[in-house]
Amino acid sequence: MLLGVYWYYGFPEGLYHFDFFAYRPGIGGSSGGPAELTATVQAPDPAALLAAVRAVAACYPDGYLDVYAHGPLVRLVLGDWALTDYTFYLAGELEKVLRQHQATSTAESLPPDTLRLHRAAPQDPTPPYSYGDGSLQAVASRPRKHRAEVALLRLDCHLPLAHQSDFLTALGALCEQFGLDVLYYFDHKIPPQTNLMLFFGNGRQGVGGQPLRYTDTAALKTAILASLATHEGQSKHLGDYPRPLPPAGPPRGAAGRC
Q1: Which residue stretches belong to region Disordered (predicted)?
Q2: Measured in whole angstroms, how far is the alpha carbon of residue 54 from the centre of its chain?
Q3: What is the dihedral of CA 242, 243, 249, 252, to 10 degrees?
Q4: Is 223 buried (19+), middle (13-18) or exposed (0-12) by CB count in 10 A?
Q5: In sequence order, what are the residues at sequence separation of 6 or more whose Cβ sits closer than 8 angstroms to the Cβ of residue 128?
């Protein structure tokens, strides 16, 4: 599973600018589609341009890329339900190729029956996340700075107040083991117990074309719940969690923020 900062409903204003690619936000809902970066160009030598595009795609295999061509027209589509920095970096590398091959933007459309010449798709090596499991929930923030959203894992639990510090220290070690940049929490003390609302995640992924880091959520859940049991804790809160949420525990790994 890919955790961290992504874009779906809005473009990362102030972080990226493109001359060829146009951004189309995701729609959301059951019938919604992915957010997309699209570019349609004319090229003097479309065959040479397509070869260069394939070379860039081979260097950056962790992004979705569809390529269509008809005569001198070439259309590039980068789309996903969670566009990371990796995708925007790939778009920038493709724009370099478009300039090198003297491509020019065009509003001309390709015929609707144009065949796709190339498709690249990232391969997540981790087991699929189980959405039916309530112990470690997949959640997302609302759009914030630069219109970014964040994919996180959330755990609600309670344990003896005397074990809270050691448990959080153990979770910090697990985050390092699983390559997670961010751990933060809210707490609500009900002596001698305490309720914890914990969030696990990453920051911006793929900045500068760095490889994406996927999280094995099944293995992470097993390790977290084992640590929770060691510290005499259990999943879920005692009673209802108060509103508004009380602030506590600064985010771990400030580099994870956008």
Answers
A1: 105-130, 234-258
A2: 24
A3: 120
A4: middle
A5: 1
Measuring CA to CA, which residue among 18, 21, 20, 43 is closest to residue 101? 43
What is the structure's pLDDT at 257?
A: 31
pLDDT at 48: 98
* pLDDT value for 251: 42
Residues of the chain with pLDDT under 70: 29-31, 132-133, 241-258
pLDDT, one tens digit per residue, over 19-61 is: 999 999 998 765 678 999 999 999 999 999 999 999 999 999 9
Contact in structure between 212 and 4 (CB atoms under 8 Å): no
CA distance 154 to 197: 7
Spatial contact of 39 and 76, defined as CB atoms under 8 Å apart: yes
Query: What is the sign of the dihedral through the CA atoms of 202, 204, 207 and 209?
Result: positive
Nearest to 197 by CA among 235, 145, 144, 140: 235
Q: Which structural domains are found in the chain, ordered by start?
A: 4-119 (3.30.1360.20), 136-235 (3.30.70.260)
Measured between alpha carbons, how far is 94 from 56 in angstroms, rounded to an integer? 7
